[in-house]
Amino acid sequence: MNSPPAPDATAQRVALIIVCLASFTAPLMLSAVNVAIPTIAAGLGADAIMLSWIPTAYLLTSAVLLLPFGRLADMYGRKRVFLLGMIIITVASMLASTSQSVQQLVAYRVLQGIGAAMLFATGVALLTSLMPRERRGAAIGMSVSSVYFGLACGPLLGGWATHHYSWRAAFLIHIPIALLIILLALAGLRGEWRNEKPQRFDLPGAGIYACAITALMYGISLLPSASGLALILAGAAGLVVFLRHERRTVDPLFDVNLFFTNRTFTFSCLASITIYTAMFGTSYLLSLYLQYVKGLTAAAAGVILIAQPAVMALLSPVSGRLSDRIEPRLLASAGLILTAAGLGMLAALGPASTPAYVVFSLLLTGGGFALFSSPNVNAIMGSVDRQHLGSAAGAVSTMRVLGQMNSMGLITVVFALLLGPVQIAPEHYPALMRSIQISFLAAAGMTGVAIYFSMVRGEIHGGKMEGRI
Question: Are 15 and 127 in contact (CB under 8 A)?
Answer without folding.
Answer: yes
